């Protein structure tokens, strides 16, 4: 079994610092029970010789191991015969999967891309510790974190932030706030020390909501300048050069995990170049062109031709029927990808025009999951 067998009673939200597997393993919420049951089905189809290592990785590095488990299950449900870490390529390294489907054979490599820089990830972990401490406070309000500015690499004092909030929140009348304050009048609290500045907006909570236990922080601000396209290109370049000549069509799957899912326009620019508006020197009319910075280059300057296709999109343990996964075919591939019935949209460039082939069977149907699976994560009588 993938998950532990015990009676679960924990019905609280996941803490900011808690590992995904640990929370999935201990949550008693019905939706997560359905997720566990589904992942157990996938795990049962994984080769016995590789199960132990995958189970260890799911506990320690859940996101990357989960993505490999998903891709394996996808191939199996498509009817493919799958080999784990085949001995292919001219550089002595083993890709994740080789798949045989009818007369077609191709190689599939998995990569997880987190929509944060290394510095941003460190900052997120630092903030997560603060948020977990703040959520220990019981108060008849919600807080919206509007700004977090770190002044040093030192960790902020959770004790100092908690003491400040407890002191300031006690000064606010929850009934007055709920009945009389408009959005622009809601109290703004600012904590500042040598290490950090934090700004909080105090949000009203209904009388009924105050009787229920909930986290103090209702929302956080995650605004940042996005460099997703550049980051994904770099990840693809790393994988595209890793195995040398494979001799078969080579597909890279990138799970693009972020606060918000990326859209098809961003995916297209990752592969085929950034769309730029410009005015030619001999005209006063605006024109559009693609910059030569896409992963696959252009027809005149093709790049990474060993990569036959790329799967982009965000897949999570609970969104399989609703994921935005798309397969993009490389029009200049040295080993073109075979015509296969994929359960996700397939995009390709034909004579410079983008065409999209919709799947005959959706991913949800292939996995036998309803559109609203796994259901509500929060019971009706909660407000979290």
Q: What is the overall number of helices? A: 11
Taking strands numbered 1, 2, ... along the chain, how are they ordered across the largest sheet? 1-2-3-8-11-12-13-14
Number of strands: 14
- Unreliable stretches covering 5 or more consecutive residues: 380-384
Round the mean pLDDT to the nearest integer and report it.
88
Element order: H for helix, E for strand:
HHHHEEEHEHHEEHEHEHEEEEEEH
Share of residues in helices = 25-40%
Tally of structural domains? 2
- Helix/strand-derived category reads alpha/beta
Rg is 24 Å
Strand content: 15-25%
Sum up the overall morphology in one term. globular
Oligomer: single chain
Distance between the termini: 31 Å
Largest sheet: 8 strands, mixed
Q: How would you describe this protein?
A:
With 384 residues, the chain is an alpha/beta fold. The protein has 2 domains: 192 residues, no CATH class; 103 residues, no CATH class. Helices cover 30% and strands 22% of the residues. Strands 1-2-3-8-11-12-13-14 form an 8-stranded mixed beta sheet, sandwiched between helices. Strands 5-6-4-7 form a 4-stranded mixed beta sheet. Strands 9-10 form a two-stranded antiparallel sheet. Helix 3 packs antiparallel against helix 4, helix 5 crosses helix 6 and helix 9 packs across helix 10. The longest helix is centred in the N-terminal third of the chain and has 17 residues. The radius of gyration is 24 Å and the shape is globular. The C terminus is likely disordered.
């Amino acid at each position: 079994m993938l998950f532990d067998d015990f009676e679960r009673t924990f019905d609280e939200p996941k803490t900011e610092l808690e590992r995904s597997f640990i929370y999935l393993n201990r949550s008693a919420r019905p939706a997560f029970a359905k997720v566990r049951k589904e992942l157990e089905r996938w795990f049962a189809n994984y080769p016995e010789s590789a199960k132990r290592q995958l189970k260890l990785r799911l506990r320690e590095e859940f996101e990357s191991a989960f993505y490999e488990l998903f891709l394996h299950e996808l191939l199996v449900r498509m009817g493919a015969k799958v080999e784990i870490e085949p001995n292919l390529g001219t550089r002595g390294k083993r890709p994740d999967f080789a798949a045989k489907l009818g007369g077609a054979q191709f190689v599939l490599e998995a990569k997880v891309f987190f929509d944060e820089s290394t510095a941003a990830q460190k900052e997120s972990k630092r903030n997560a510790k603060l948020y977990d401490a703040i959520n220990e406070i019981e108060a008849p309000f919600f807080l919206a974190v509007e700004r977090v500015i770190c002044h040093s690499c030192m960790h902020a004092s959770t004790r100092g932030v908690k003491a400040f909030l407890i002191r300031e929140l006690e000064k606010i009348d929850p009934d007055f706030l709920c009945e009389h304050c408009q959005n622009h009048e809601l109290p703004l609290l600012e904590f500042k020390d040598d290490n950090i500045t934090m700004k909080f907006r105090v949000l009203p909570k209904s009388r009924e909501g105050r009787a229920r236990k909930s986290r103090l922080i209702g929302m956080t601000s995650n605004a940042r300048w996005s460099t997703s396209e550049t980051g994904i290109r770099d990840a693809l370049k790393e994988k595209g050069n890793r195995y040398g000549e494979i001799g078969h069509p080579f597909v890279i799957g990138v799970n693009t995990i972020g606060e918000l899912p990326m859209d098809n326009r961003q995916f297209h620019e990752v592969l085929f170049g950034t769309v730029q508006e410009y005015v030619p020197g001999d005209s006063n009319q605006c024109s559009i062109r693609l910059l030569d910075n896409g992963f696959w280059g252009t027809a005149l300057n093709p790049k990474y031709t060993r990569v036959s296709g790329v799967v982009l999109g965000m897949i999570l343990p609970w969104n399989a029927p609703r994921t935005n996964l798309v397969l993009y075919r490389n029009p200049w591939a040295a080993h073109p990808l075979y015509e296969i019935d994929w359960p996700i949209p397939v995009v390709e460039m034909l004579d410079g025009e983008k065409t999209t082939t919709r799947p005959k069977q959706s991913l949800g149907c292939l996995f036998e999951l309803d559109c609203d699976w796994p259901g509500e994560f929060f019971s009706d009588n909660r407000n979290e």
